[in-house]
Each structure stands twice: as C-alpha cells, then as structure tokens.
C-alpha cells in the first residue's frame, strides 16, 4: 500500500509536468517573446522610441507594405541596397509618428481637414501634389487632374486608395513639421550688440609680433603618456567623446579564382557555342538565351565595344568573330550586316564659353572670346588643350569630349540642330550659340545612322563548383583550426600567404565592410550578444568571389565610453597639453626681447609678424588660424606684451603693435541678417537632433536584418 501511495503522489507531479510541457509545446516560443512575456524577455523588440517599444511583426508588416509599393512603382523587387533604404524609411516614419508627434501635440500643432483640402486642391497646393499631377506634355500643373482623380478614387483598387491615404498623411506631416520648425526659427532673435560684435570681428584689424613654439617641435617620443593621465582627461571631457556602439574585426579572405582546368573547360564551352551560333536558325534568340550579359541585336556604331570596332571592317555577313575579352567576360559575335536607323549618332567635343550674365554686353564679350579661341584652333592650336584651359563645363577636364550621342533630344535643340546639320568630321567653321553660351565644336566621329546586326554571346569565366568546394573546404578547415584571435595571429605568422584585412568601428546597421558590399551577415555576427572580443566566427561567410573567416578584435559601448574607444585622439590631446606645459615652463624663465627669448630657448622657437588681421578670418603664419591665440592677441592693449600662453597648436608670447577699430555704423541690420540666416540654416538640423536625443532612441534593427 505504501508503494501504491508513493506512486499516486509522484503521478500527480508527473501529470503536472506533462501538462506544462504540452502548454509550452503548443504556444512555442511566444511565451518568451513579445511586448510582455512571462519571463520579462523581449527578443522581438526592433527598437524603442520615446519609451514606446517597436516589435518585429508590426515593423516587418510596414516594411512589406513599403516593399510592395516600391515594386508596384518600379516594376521590380528591391535589391539589397533598396531593401536597406526601405527599412530606413519605415524606421524614420516611426520616429516621425512617435517622437515628433509628441512634440507637435505638446504645442497643439495640427493640420485641419480644411487645410489639407487646400493643400491638395485649393489655392496653396503642396509641392508633392504639383509634382504628381503635372501634365507631362505641357509641363504645367493642372488642378482638374487632381479633382478628377479624387472623384474616381472610391472606384479604384484598395491598394491605390491606401496609397493615396498614405500620401495625404505624408504631406500633412510635412506641413506640421514645417510649422514646428518655423515656430522654433522665429523664436530666435539677434540683438544689436550681437550684430555689432560680428561687425567688429569682420572689420576691426590688428598687427602683432609674436614668439611661437609649435607642439610639433618636441617629438612625440619624448613625451610619455600614462593610462592614468588618459583616464583623467576623459573624465574631465566626457562631453567631447560621445559613446557609440561599434565593432572592430580582422578577417581572413580566401579568394575563389578559376583554375587552369576551369579555363580549359570555359574555352571549350565558348568554342561549342560559337559552332552552334554559326548554324542557329534564329541567331539573335540563341545569343540571348546563352549570354550571361545580354546586349541588343541592333547596335549603333557608338555602342560597339572598341576592341570590336577595330576589326569591324573585316567582318563578313554570317561570319563568327571572337572571342573578345573585356575583364572576365568573353564575347563572340555573328555578324548579320547593317541596317539604316531612323536616328543618327555622332561623337563630338566642345569648348563652352558662358557669359557672366544675361546682358547683351556680357553675351558679346563671351562670343568674342569664343571666336578668338576658334581662330587659335584654326591656326593650329590644340583643341583639347584649349578646352582644358577655357571650357566652362564638366567636359573641360576631358578635353571637351561629349562622347557619342543621338539626335533624340538628349542635347539642347540649337546645339543638336547645328551638330547634325554638319557633314563629315572636323572643326565646325563657326561658334554655336545656345542658351548656355557659345560653343566651339569639333566632330570627332561623323554622324551616321548605320546600325549593325551583331548576335553576341557574352560569357563570364567563373570558377567551377569543384573549385568553389575546394576553397570552401580550405576556409572551413582554417575557421575550425583557428577559433580565436590569438590562434589567427599565430597562423598569420606561420603562413605569409594568408590575406588579412581589418575593419575598424563598424556600426550596427552597416551593410558593407571595406570592399565587401553585402556584408550584413558578418556585421550581425560581430554584434551578436554571444560574440566576445577575441572570438573567431567558426563559420565561413560567402562573399561573391571569396570566402571570409572573421575575428572580433574590439567593441565600443554607447553607454560606457572607455579610453580605448578614443585612445589615439585622447593621447594626442594629453600629449599636446604636456608639451604645452613643458614649453611654457622653459619660456617663463627667460627674459628679454622676443628675439632674445627665441635665441635662448633654442630650436623650434619662431618670431613672426602679422599685419591687418581680423578675428573672423585671421591667420597667424606658421600657427595658422589658432583661435585661442587670435583672441588673446586681439584682447591686448596696443604696445603691450602678453604672458606666456598656450594656444591650439603651440605656445606663444605676443606683442600687439597696432590696432584699427572698425568705425561705428548707424545700422547693423546687414550683420543681424547674416547671423539670423546662419541660425536658420542650422536650425533644421539642430531641431531634428534635439528631438531624437530627447526621445532616447534605441535602434535594434541590426539584430534582425
């Protein structure tokens, strides 16, 4: 009986355990995730904005909606770069909807329904609406298009209706944001005293003599900086060194290149394709089907690769030519003869001389200068050289070369008419006038409307699967044998053929590493909570034509700034302070004129003069724009000498020899406007940064993408 009782007691516990296991099995990992879980974990949190948690399912849903819109607008799905851009747009929209909205609501700012109607179809049309409903034929905005669209909106598919709702939301947010920024901007005021100070800084001048001992006169090796000094400096200047979440890595790269056997097999493939192309009944379709890089069947002369052009004159109809090499791509061609195109192609160079303004006198001067240059070229001067010296657009550095272009409206009408009205090649006899100015033109390839039938098969040589497998096996063995940074460094010493690369201070959402363009997987590994400094990836990352084994060498924490995060920069600053103290101590014990002090000090001491220096744009010869020194000298009385003081780049003793104060003005409005406009230009940036800082944004997207 006792045994049966024990079994009954234990069976109750077992039943409870089984029940709990079943519940956990049924609900899966949801109990450990989500906005509020039983165990307080939040593994699906994409970020936090102004105290509000953004979870992965809702964030991903918005990303998918934005991706669908992108695909509908462009007709193709987004690539890696576009996907990153879409996620950034969704994230920024969250910031606007949460962080910015709290600021707007606190001030009672809003866009009324009447105001929204006015922005869409009223008297104050929003620029985005104008852009969307501009008549492509006339280039003019037509309000009737908007009204007609809105009348038909309810009959449109749900996706289009939602798209319009999102569009209206975006322009309303843009308007309310403008209101907010204008409110902040208009709250700033520049008084007369500030304007007067700016005027004096720009116009008051002084002259001076000074002794200058630059920090660089003492070798860095002569100044020892301790860790304790670095820690003390960081503690005093924490506001200057902002924390950031970053990772530093080293990585070994194992390139995958075609072997000799791969090359032989590739050439055999090209030869077979050439034979098949020769007898293909539809050569253009066959070429398209078998090309890694597709090219049109009909090509203008300008579109034919240079290496093919050089042999084009020898081509016979029906002949197979090539292979022609371009990088790792090899091309074979079947020539089908020529065809006359409706458009002409030409290649030309020009020298643009633009008038200084639109006045008749400025135009006359520009034309005269252009005609003078044309005369020089006719006399034997180099067109390309004169283009580099005189051209007033981006083609000047290339000798005026415009490349090939067609008479399809790609050039301004007057220019196109003149170029395509010219027969043959060579210098055009007169200058060509357009709305941009006056052009001296040389036709480098005569116009032609001949199109060439070229069925092209373009194949890129690539390593075989056997080669890929062999290099992967090599990289995988290396990763398993060298699981730590210490083992990696030892391997580097043993094998000098290992290719090692570094990447410093990668940010959480980085998508590339050095020349590795799609490196998100490596970045995510580096930021994974399970990856510690010194760890190797123990796995191989595939990157186009190479395999990567990575090692985490350093990390920085946004909320815990350490000396090592800024060691080099802090060391330079502390070293400069110590140099300043050493130089100042030596100078303070020397008496006499500046020249005598410099002579007694020895190597490194300079005595220099400056004249008519202003505070706003002042330069102190060797010392450059040293703000501390400029301020100290400007504050001296004329004829007085300063004590020894330390500037931005060295140590000074200065004598002010003359000063000319700017005369008082009756009206400082110009300088008020200058300061005000500078403030307005910076306001938008500072407002955005202040709102983001106040929202205490935590971005965790790097954990999921």
Summarize the structure.
With 705 residues, the protein is α+β, with helices and mostly antiparallel strands.
Question: Could you characterize the architecture of this molecule?
Answer:
By secondary structure, the chain is of the alpha+beta class. It is built from 22 helices and 18 strands. Strands 5, 6, 7, 8, 9, 10 and 11 form a seven-stranded antiparallel beta sheet that branches. Strands 15-3-17-16 form a four-stranded antiparallel beta sheet, with helices on both faces. A four-stranded antiparallel beta sheet has the order 12-4-14-13. It is a single-pass type II membrane protein. Its main location: membrane. Belongs to the PpiD chaperone family.
Write the layout of secondary structure elements.
Elements: H1 2-27, E1 45-49, E2 52-55, H2 56-74, H3 80-107, H4 113-121, H5 127-132, H6 143-152, H7 158-186, H8 192-203, E3 205-214, H9 227-236, E4 246-255, H10 260-279, H11 283-289, E5 298-300, H12 306-312, E6 320-326, E7 329-353, H13 360-378, H14 383-390, E8 401-406, H15 413-420, E9 426-427, E10 432-434, E11 437-460, H16 465-481, H17 485-494, E12 499-507, H18 520-527, E13 541-543, E14 546-556, H19 567-588, H20 594-601, E15 606-613, H21 627-635, E16 645-646, E17 650-660, H22 669-695, E18 698-699
Antiparallel strand pairs: 1-2, 1-18, 3-15, 3-17, 4-12, 4-14, 5-11, 6-7, 7-8, 7-11, 9-11, 10-11, 13-14, 16-17
Helix pairs in contact: 2-3, 3-22, 8-22, 9-19
